[in-house]
User: What shape does this take?
Amino acid sequence: MPRSTVLPELAYPDISEAITRLCDAFGFTLRIRIADHRAQLNVGDGAVILIAADGEVYMRTAVMVRVEDVDRHYERARRSGMRIVLEPKDYPYGERQYNVEDFAGHHWCFSQSIADVDPREWGGNARRFVAPRAWPAAKSCLVSGVGEAYDGLARGPDRKFQPISNQEQTTNMKITGNTILITGGGSGIGRGLAEAFHALGNTVIIAGRRKHALDATLAANPGMKAVTLDVESRGGIRAFAAQMAKDYPSLNVLINNAGIMRPEILKNQQEDVADAEAIVNINLLGPIRLTAALLPQLRKQAHSVIMNVTSGLAFVPLALTPTYCATKAALRSYTQSIRYQLKGTTTEVVELVPPYVQTDLMGGASDPRAMPLDKYIAEVMEILSGQPAATEICVENVKRLRFAAENGQYDAIFNGLNDAMSKAAV
Ligand SMILES: NC(=O)c1ccc[n+]([C@@H]2O[C@H](COP(=O)([O-])OP(=O)(O)OC[C@H]3O[C@@H](n4cnc5c(N)ncnc54)[C@H](OP(=O)(O)O)[C@@H]3O)[C@@H](O)[C@H]2O)c1
Assistant: This one.
C-alpha cells in the first residue's frame, strides 16, 4: 500500500485507458496494477487508486483512509448511523477494510494494514517496463499484475470473475533477454509482436513464405533477422529446424503464429476440400510439426517458451469459416496437452487468444469493428509484462468469446454472431 494516510479512490470505466491518459497528461507513474479492475498511481509523495467503475455500489469514487484499528473505527461509524456498504474483511494484499457511505452519499474506505505482503505473494510481480514509442502507452512505468484468485477476491464476495490463466506455471514468460522465432512475422499480429519484442532488445527472427514481406519488416526494424519458411512443408520444417540450431543456438521462444483463414460454403463447393486441407496443414499441422522439430533445441535452454496463437473463434465458432475455427479449437486442445506434458520442465507453454484484429487475415485490415493492431499488441505486451505467469493471454476484447460458455452465454453469442454474419451476407 502507498504510505499516505488519505488516498483518493477514483472510479473509471476503463482502467487501462485511465492509466495511460492520467500518466500522459499529469506525469503520474504507475505504481501497481491489479488485473483490469484496480491500479495505484504515484503522485509526488502520495498516490491515487483507480478502481473499475461498473455500477456496483462499492465500485464508486471514494476516499480511502488508513486507520490504526479498523474494527473499532467500523463500530463507531455504524453506531453513528452511517450506511455500511462492505463489512470489515481481510484482503490478501495485507489490508483489513470496510466501506461506508456517508450522509451526503460520499463513499469512504477505511483500511488497516495487517501484514506487509510482497505483491508477488498474492500473484503479482512488479518489474520495470518500457513501452516502445509506437505503443499508445508510451511511458516508462512500474507494472504489476496478479493471478486470477486475487482478481475474484478483490472485487468483492459476490462478484463473478474470469480467470486469465487456467494453469499455474512455475516458470515465467520473460519479455526480455530471449531469442524468439515468430512464424508469420512478416505481417499482422506476427509483425506487431516481432516489433514489440525487438524494441525490448530481444533477438527476433521472423519466418514466412513471402520474402518481400519479411524484407519490408527487416528494413523497418534494423537488426531483426528473417528466414523463409513454408509451414506446410514437412521436409522444409526439418531443414529449417537444423538451420535454426546452427544459426541461432540460443533460440528459446517459438511463437506459432502463421495462419490462414478462408470462408467455406459447403453447399457450393461439393467435394472439393482443398481450402480445408490447406487450413489444417498450416494452422494445425504447421505448429505441431514445428514444435516437434524445435523442441529438442528449446529443451536445451535454461528457460524456453512455446506460444501458440489460437483465436476467440476457438471458443465460439464462426460458421462461415468452419475449418479455420476447428483448427483453432484443436490447437488450443493441443496446447493444453503439451503444457501438461511439459509440466515441471523448463519449457513453458502459452496460448495467445486474439479477438478480431485489424490485419489482412481475411480482409479486415480496415474494418472499424476489429481491434486496431497497435492497441492489441500494446495490451498483449502489458499482460505479458504484468502477469508473466499467465498461460492464456486474453485481452479485454476477446473475453466475451473466451468466457461465453463459463458465463452461460454460449448459445446466445453463437447465434448472435452467426445470425449477424448470415444477414450481412444476404
Ligand atoms: N486478425 C485476427 O482477427 C485474428 C484473430 C484471431 C486469431 N488470429 C490469428 O493470428 C495469426 C496471425 O494472423 P494475422 O491476423 O496477423 O494475419 P496475417 O497478417 O495474414 O498473418 C498471417 C501470417 O501467416 C503467414 N503464413 C501463412 N501461411 C504460411 C505458411 N504456409 N508458412 C509460413 N507462414 C505462413 C503469412 O506469411 P506468408 O503469407 O508470407 O507466408 C502471414 O505473415 C493467425 O494464426 C490467425 O489465425 C488472427
Q: What stands out?
A: The pocket of NAP is lined by residues 183-184, 186-190, 208-210, 213, 229-232, 257-261, 282, 309, 311, 354, 356-357, 359-361, 364, 370 (CB under 6 Å). The longest helix spans residues 274-299. The first strand starts at residue 6 and ends at 12.
